[in-house]
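Box 3.1 — From sequence to structure: Probable membrane transporter protein
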Amino acid sequence: MQKLIILALIGFAAQLVDGSLGMAYGVTSSSLLLMFGIAPAVASASVHMAEVVTTAASGAAHLRFGNVDKTVVKRLTIPGSIGAFVGASFLSYIPGDLVKPYISAFLFLLGFYVLGRFLFGDRNRPKETEAPKRFLIPLGLFAGFADSTGGGGWGPLTTPILLSRKGMEARKVIGSVDTSEFAIAVSATLGFIISLGWTNISWPWVAALMVGGMIAAPIAAWLVRVIPAHLLGVMVGGLIVMTNAKTLLNSFEWFPASLHGLAYGVLSLLWAGSIALAVWKKTGPDRKVSLSESFK
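Predicted structure (token representation):
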């Protein structure tokens, strides 16, 4: 029972981060299940089954708060679903660990770009632009495939790439990614059921993750609505850097493990300093906006 409560709390925390920053539910939950000794395919299947419910709750909340670009959702959903189903069906045959460091290196650099663009770029409200099909279709296919094979990846791939494009509002990127993830979770779940069967799924763990995620979903959607766009972008950029730094450091055999803590500490200080600078730029001595007003 204690383990289920812990899983529910993890599901709550993971969905709170995922719903407000557009990523981390699958990665966080899968990492926990793997730590408890569950096989990668079963862990990924359990997380995606939980996400069928949590992403539905998250999408409904984001729609309610006006955080969704329906065009982006439509163009991501079909290719993302196809990629997720294929990835889930062939997970045991795919050497995902071989390509993971290269994807993480790309996202690590992209995270710095996103952080810098929202910290030092034009913070005025961007013009709404329509993302082209030729851009969203391959993005959806690749992100859906990566999501199934790694137990998480839809948000970490689609959110920073969409944020790196000028003209897309941060809260609508996050809301659209979270809303479209429902179809990806359903497709991946179907693939896992076909390849693994029902009996290999840890249903109590799935239920615990679902409960925690459902409670957090509306809170996260509200946070996206009230947090200023530039601050939201800086927070997402830093999270992208931090989540991919671990994969990169573990992949670099030449980098001493004793220095991993120092590397995380430096990156954490950089992220914290960037958030502080983003707040100061909005509320500093040259601004006539209070901190409380900036969140309105």
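Summary of the box: The mean pLDDT is 76.
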